[in-house]
Amino acid sequence: MRTTLAALTTLAAALASAAPVRNAGREQLMPSVGDERVQIGFADFGGFVKNPRSAASARPDSSGTALLLYQAYILDAVNGDKVGFLSDLVFLTDRESARSYQPVSLDYLLGMSTRFDSWRVQFDRDEAMSLKGGSGGWRNWSVRGSYLLQSKKEQLNMPKFGRRRRFDVGADAWSLGLTAGYFLHPGTTPSRLDGTGQVEWRYQAAGRMSFMKETLLLQADADMLTDRNTRRRLPSDLDLDLGIGTKIDQTELMIHRRSRQAIGAPGYALYYLLTARIRFDSRTMSP
């Protein structure tokens, strides 16, 4: 009996893991722009309302327990988004720190992109680091290609085999992004939540829908990494974000169910994040 309990305890410890939060660079569903130069983006303030066993760590080395999230994203799009420059900053605080409101880690991404219709190519430089306590981190250079679709009509148009087909999904707005990326210089970036492996490929599928004039917001985001040393083109890690929320005035309130798990190896983390997002667009802010 004791042997069985010990085995179950060991198994539970192996399955319940602390995972670094991967938020930087996941936003791909920004609206297309005209021929002018515009700045678009958002500011996020979030709280980890349920974070058992430090499932979301406060630092990239998996130490600490994430409590608050501050994020700022901006895209400077030139000539109808044919050329874009973007930055994405994510700060995390530690529940175990004496000053739990002060950031203890930073993950920043700087990128340059070009977009033609629904196709987008983006080059990124990403670095995660500890600001207080902890050790380690990672940095990498990568390139990604994305196919982006969006509509703000109830009658939505989706390309299929070169032709247009109509779909009525009853949504006020709808968007979808499919991405494949390659890490040109992975550095020490791990491919699994436990810090093992080395990344090579990245696959992402993200969707968002709004109903009843944004009274109801739904989103889903699946982000996968492959390991350069094992099954190089097959996912070794899945980061899944499912969200539901609403919009009040200019603020989007959303509860996220975030899970991250290793594929083909032990390791699983689950937590809940509540965010308030304020979007901005220079076209609507100009007099």
Can you characterise this structure?
- This protein has one domain: Porin.
- 6% of the residues lie in helices and 62% in strands.
- The protein has helices at residues 2-15, 282-285, and strands spanning 19-20, 38-50, 56-57, 66-78, 83-94, 103-116, 119-130, 137-151, 155-160, 163-168, 173-185, 199-211, 216-227, 230-248, 251-262, 268-281.
- The N and C termini lie far apart (73 Å).
- Mean pLDDT is 84; it is low at 4-15 and 153-169.
Largest sheet: 12 strands, antiparallel, barrel
The pLDDT mean sits at 84
Q: Number of helical runs? A: 2
Query: Order of strands across the widest beta sheet?
Result: 2-4-5-6-7-8-11-12-13-14-15-16
Our Rg estimate from Cα atoms comes to 20 Å
The name of the CATH superfamily reads monomeric porin ompg
What's this, in brief?
With 287 residues, the chain is mainly beta. The chain has helices spanning 2-15, 282-285, and strands at residues 19-20, 38-50, 56-57, 66-78, 83-94, 103-116, 119-130, 137-151, 155-160, 163-168, 173-185, 199-211, 216-227, 230-248, 251-262, 268-281.
